[in-house]
Amino acid sequence: xxxxxxxxxxxxxxxxxxxxxxxxxxxxxxxxxxxxxxxxxxxxxxxxxxxxxxxxxxxxxxxxxxxxxxxxxxxxxxxxxxxxxxxxxxxxxxxxxxxxxxxxxxxxxxxxxxxxxxxxxxxxxxxxxxxxxxxxxxxxxxxxxxxxxxxxxxxxxxxxxxxxxxxxxxxxxxxxxxxxxxxxxxxxxxxxxxxxxxxxxxxxxxxxxxxxxxxxxxxxxxxxxxxxxxxxxxxxxxxxxxxxxxxxxxxxxxxxxxxxxxxxxxxxxxxxx
Length: 273
Fold this sequence. Notes:
Elements lengths: L7 H13 L18 H13 L1 H23 L4 E5 L6 H4 L6 E6 L1 H13 L7 E3 L7 H7 L8 E5 L8 H14 L3 E8 L1 H4 L6 H14 L11 H7 L1 E8 H8 L4 H4 L6 E8 L1
Parallel strand pairs: 1-2, 1-4, 2-3, 4-5
Antiparallel strand pairs: 5-7, 6-7
Helix pairs in contact: 1-2, 1-3, 2-3, 3-11
């Protein structure tokens, strides 16, 4: 399969998740990740990780914090989970819980490839909505599959915002909030210093250029002030922090490998006020 049929960035998280299973003390479990790995993509991403190991490190902790957010939401009674730009995310299986419904949202080609792999392995995919979530009437599509728009719903938005123009991010959140009044949104984001190549870290700038040059994926948006989400979208920040903070919680011994990303990759959880 040509990697371009799906998009290279769909494979990178699976490579990271698969590599985690080789660790002496894995930070998370994902027995499905290896099912999706394209050999061409794997080799290219392993070259990237070898050259810029902090990229893998920060991606590991992104998985951790999204898992933590999901577990906490389910413990608080949230029974609807929507994964935006889902790619090969398998939390619907990993965190399968009676009474909790999951839904993937992604481009048709990505979902078709994912479902083909899962069905060949005898795994029934969770409900999915094909399309560009920035263009869809997403609440309307969720209602069609019997999601309760008034019920608390967690939207996992992992590894997406850096690829999207800021105005589209805010417009999407406005539309989502208008129809799903009890939403929670968990996302990760880059500092604008990465986007603008002003981090002062030559290695970081080189990594940004490498990712764009080799994978055709341009990072266009970063945030250095989260208050814009409270002011522009009227959403309350209930948690935020740097990926280095997550690292210190889970594997402080790995902090030196992530030091160059200090303040550059972070996460946020928003909730409708």
